[in-house]
């Protein structure tokens, strides 16, 4: 048996302020010429959204018993899927987060 462990797959950071990196080496090159202080501050609304998404990732799903079907045009659907992918969550999770935020704001 070998003690050699396989390297972990590269996972790019989930921060919209950063470019999309194809590899860890590409990200390392970026940080050789940039500093975190150079990035624009994260807006409070985005911080709240990130926290809601993080909660949605970790909340137990047992309470999710009801289903609602919503028809969308292709452009809206594709935009939601792309946004969710960028955040590292599924599109239904993202829409659920948005709905909860909207209902809490009332």
Our count of helices gives 4
User: Strand count, sense and closure of the main sheet?
Assistant: none
**Global morphology:** elongated
Rg from Cα: 18 Å
Helix coverage percent of residues? Answer: 40-55%
State which percent range the strand residues make up: under 5%
Give, in order, the helices and strands. Answer: HHHH
The structural class is: mainly alpha
**What's the total number of strands?**
0
The total tally of domains equals 2
Mean pLDDT: 80
* Spans of at least 5 consecutive residues with low confidence: none
What is the distance, rounded to the nearest whole angstrom, between the alpha carbons of the first and last residues? 60 Å
Please tell me about this protein's structure.
With about 110 residues, the chain is mainly alpha-helical. It folds into two domains: about 10-40, no CATH class; about 40-105, no CATH class. It is about 50% helix and about 0% strand. It contains four helices and no strands. It has helices at about 25-35, 45-60, 75-85, 90-105. α2 (about 45-60) crosses α4 (about 90-105) and α3 packs across α4 (about 90-105). It is elongated, with a radius of gyration of 18 Å.
């Amino acid at each position: 048996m070998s003690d050699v462990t396989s390297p972990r797959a590269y996972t790019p950071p989930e921060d919209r302020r950063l470019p999309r990196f194809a590899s860890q080496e590409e990200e390392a090159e970026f940080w050789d010429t940039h500093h975190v202080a150079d990035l624009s501050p994260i807006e409070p609304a985005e911080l709240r959204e990130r926290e809601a998404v993080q909660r949605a990732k970790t909340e137990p799903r047992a309470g999710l018993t009801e289903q609602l079907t919503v028809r969308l045009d292709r452009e809206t659907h594709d935009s939601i899927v792309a946004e969710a992918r960028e955040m590292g969550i599924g599109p239904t999770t993202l829409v659920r987060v948005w709905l909860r935020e909207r209902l809490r704001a009332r």
